[in-house]
Design brief:
This protein is 33% helix and 15% strand. It is α/β, with parallel strands linked by helices. It folds into 2 domains: 227 residues, Rossmann fold; 185 residues, Serine carboxypeptidase S28, SKS domain (Four Helix Bundle (Hemerythrin (Met), subunit A)), CATH 1.20.120.980. The relative contact order is 0.13.
Length: 481
């Protein structure tokens, strides 16, 4: 996950310096989905008393488009009146529209609506951690979606007066938060864009193995022979001996030469295929690691370099399949050509901190490989999963809690929510597709990957992405008018 705080340009800002009555606020609600690219901007530097100091062109990282970071004091436990402990949440706040082609959909439309942009760091994701200064050992006791939503509502209440129009945006888990915030706090939230939000990825509400079915479909679409060859690869990896492991680790150029665990290797490869399918974007991205456009697809620009294509041969031998895996690792981990010394699977999700997300997913959601796909079959055993969760985090999952808490069974009483899903996104199987009333909007993006509509616009965007963003803007305009 990117560092929340970078060096700023020395701008000085206090919310009270501005007319807050007419503001339209956009809340970017999850820390794992942030714009990535550098941009050129023209920025006016001001002294604290708003006297003009200088105007200059800068090429800066996207974080510097925000005014200096702030902290907000929040309750550790919003629901326990016997616990009055507090902690600091970091937030970034922008009141200027630096560029019309800035890094991300929210920045692109902020100037259209005359909106402020607010990003609040999610508790435990980054530096906003309760008891991090040694009052207690850091644990995830207070890491829940319910606590996080009240953090955000408290921040909105602190910064802005009543009748401020607030639109929340989020992708993936952030999309779940965005939808839930509109459902639970309609007095504070005018509308929500929930992109790639698997709000039905719970036992009894969707097929918990659907992500792996979608990934298999993606591979078959891009390389028709690849799923069967990958199935053969698992058999090859499981049929091993000591001599074979020496050759395999060297051929794959893996780090941790002394930890030759085939079961862990297969799980790591599964995670890599999952990640590559999520970020199969039409333009290069650095959301997880630096990757080319469409890492699963052969395009004129890719020069036949695509993961699905590596496995698309007919009758591939053992050596050819292992070589295809080695090429896949090189494309994923070494796309920039920096020639890393070895490949480390702990870098699959880049700087994203998977520990808090793993905790939340294990606590509430469901996911399993299943059998109707190219991945190794794994029988789901709730007792085993509960035991592992208890040993790792010290808690027992309650997977029926969120559906009851958020009323996902019937959204007919809710309005002003957009649910967008790309049909190539592994998480799309847990998305919401019912238009329960005229206030629930469903946008399906043909060929779309994970929250592709929240990414910055590009000349490479297919028509389906362009139309999705256009539709979302029209809907938001209706909410604000």
């Amino acid at each position: 996950m990117p560092e929340l705080i970078r060096a700023t340009l020395g701008l000085h800002f206090k919310p009270s310096d501005h007319n807050r009555q007419s503001v339209t606020l956009f809340v970017f609600s999850i820390s794992s989905l942030l714009p990535e690219e550098d941009i050129h901007i023209k920025i006016t530097l001001k002294e604290p008393k708003n006297t003009l100091k200088a105007e200059k062109d800068y090429k800066i990282g996207w974080f510097e488009t925000f005014v200096s970071p702030h902290t907000f004091t929040c309750q550790v436990d919003h629901y326990n009146f016997n616990n009055n402990d507090k902690f600091e949440i970091k937030y970034l706040y922008s009141d200027q529209f630096y560029t019309k082609d800035g890094p991300g959909f929210i920045w692109e439309i902020a100037s259209l609506f005359g909106a402020y942009v607010l990003f609040g760091e999610h508790r435990y994701y980054g530096e906003s951690i309760p008891y991090k200064n040694g009052q207690n050992n850091i644990s995830f006791e207070y890491l829940t979606a319910e606590q996080a939503m009240l953090d955000y509502v408290s921040l909105i209440d602190y910064l802005f007066p009543p009748k401020t129009k607030v639109i929340v945006f989020g992708g993936s888990y952030g999309g779940m938060l965005a939808a839930w915030m509109r459902m639970k706090y309609p007095a504070y939230i005018t509308g929500a864009l929930a992109s790639s939000a698997p709000i039905l990825m719970f036992e009894g509400y969707s097929d918990c193995g659907s992500p792996f079915v979608t990934i298999t479909k993606n591979f078959r679409t891009e390389g028709p022979n690849s799923p069967e060859n990958i199935k053969t690869l698992w058999n090859i990896l499981n049929d091993h001996n000591t001599k074979y492991l020496d050759w395999l680790w060297n051929e794959l150029n893996l780090c941790n030469q002394n930890e030759r665990n085939i079961e862990l290797l297969i799980q790591n490869i599964t995670n890599l295929f999952f990640a590559a399918s999520m970020v199969n974007y039409p333009s290069p991205s650095t959301l997880l690691v630096p990757l080319p456009a469409y890492p699963l697809r052969v395009t004129p620009r890719s020069h036949c370099q695509a993961i699905s294509q590596y496995f698309n041969g007919k009758g591939m031998s053992e050596e050819e399949l292992v070589r295809a895996l080695a090429l896949s690792l090189n494309l994923y981990f070494n796309n920039t050509g920096t020639r890393v010394l070895c490949f480390d699977f702990t870098d699959t999700y880049g700087s994203v901190d998977l520990l808090p997300w793993g905790y939340q997913m294990d606590l509430y959601m469901c996911s399993r490989e299943g059998v109707d796909n190219m991945f190794p079959p794994m029988e789901y055993n709730s007792s085993r999963v509960n035991k592992e969760c208890s040993e790792l985090y010290g808690v027992t999952p309650r997977r029926g809690f969120i559906p009851l808490e958020t009323n996902v069974r019937d959204l007919s009483s809710f309005t002003n929510i957009i649910f967008s899903n790309g049909d190539m996104d592994p998480w799309s199987g847990g998305g919401f597709y019912r238009q329960d009333n005229e206030g629930i909007h469903v946008v399906v993006i043909e060929g779309g990957a994970h929250h592709v509509d929240l990414r910055e616009s590009s000349d490479n965007d297919p028509p389906s992405v362009v139309l999705a963003r256009r539709r979302e803007i029209e809907i938001i305009q209706g909410w604000l008018n």
